[in-house]
């Protein structure tokens, strides 16, 4: 089980998320790992990285999620509002808001940083802070370099897990 090593509140301006939207029918073996593999294999981040990114998310790759009638899982990056969307990509605009962010410390290769248990661990930590989670919130996995890309001596990394807070 991962451990939460930091909990903070982050406020962001209105942002545009550019990427691709997936639903439960796009899962492979229960998850979206194969979709991430496609992105890396096919160089799908390169056109996005060429745009720069929103400084609030430090150029990180994002797994953006919500449940609004059906589960949505987006892969992509955040950009300033109004950023032109490259051909072949989709987008969603998010209003200015705050996120409760947990740094999950654990092993990426075991899958312990992902899924329902990790989500509920972060929900619990955010609620302990007295923060209210938004109704039908956006939540995300933020793959920040070097926290996520450089494992520690125990082979563990830090995944930023963010949940939209009520305004």
How is the largest sheet built, in terms of strand order?
1-6-8-7-3-4-2-5
The description of the largest β-sheet is: 8 strands, antiparallel
Class per helix and strand makeup? alpha+beta
What Rg, in angstroms, do the CA atoms define? 15 Å
Indicate the proportion of strand residues: 35-45%
The tally of helices reads 3
How would the global form be characterised?
globular
Number of strands: 8
Helix content: 10-25%
Query: Mean of residue pLDDT?
Result: 96
Q: Can you tell me the residue ranges where pLDDT is under 50 for at least 5 consecutive residues?
A: none
Intertermini distance: 31 Å
Sequence of secondary-structure elements:
EEHHEEEEHEE
Topology at a glance:
Elements: E1 3-12, E2 15-23, H1 33-41, H2 45-49, E3 61-67, E4 71-80, E5 90-94, E6 97-106, H3 116-128, E7 139-143, E8 157-164
Antiparallel strand pairs: 1-6, 2-4, 2-5, 3-4, 3-7, 6-8, 7-8
Describe it.
This protein has 167 residues and is an alpha+beta fold. It contains three helices and eight strands, in the order ββααββββαββ. The protein has an eight-stranded antiparallel β-sheet. The longest helix is centred in the C-terminal third of the chain and has 13 residues, at 116-128. It is globular, with a radius of gyration of 15 Å. The termini are far apart. The mean pLDDT is 96.
């Amino acid at each position: 089980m991962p451990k939460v090593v930091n909990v903070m509140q982050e406020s962001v301006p209105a942002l545009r998320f550019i990427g691709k939207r997936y639903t439960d029918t796009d899962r492979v073996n229960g998850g979206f790992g194969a979709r991430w593999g496609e992105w890396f294999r096919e160089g799908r981040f390169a056109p996005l990285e060429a745009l720069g990114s929103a400084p609030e998310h430090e150029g990180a790759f994002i797994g953006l999620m919500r449940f609004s009638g059906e589960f949505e899982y987006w892969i992509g990056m955040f950009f300033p509002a109004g950023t032109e969307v490259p051909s072949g990509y989709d987008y969603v605009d998010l209003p200015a808001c705050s996120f409760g962010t947990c740094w999950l410390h654990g092993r990426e290769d075991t899958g312990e940083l992902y899924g329902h248990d990790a989500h509920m661990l972060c929900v619990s930590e955010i609620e302990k802070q007295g923060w209210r989670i938004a109704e039908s919130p956006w939540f995300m996995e933020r793959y920040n370099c070097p926290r996520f890309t450089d494992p520690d001596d125990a082979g563990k990394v830090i995944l930023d897990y963010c949940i939209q807070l009520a305004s």
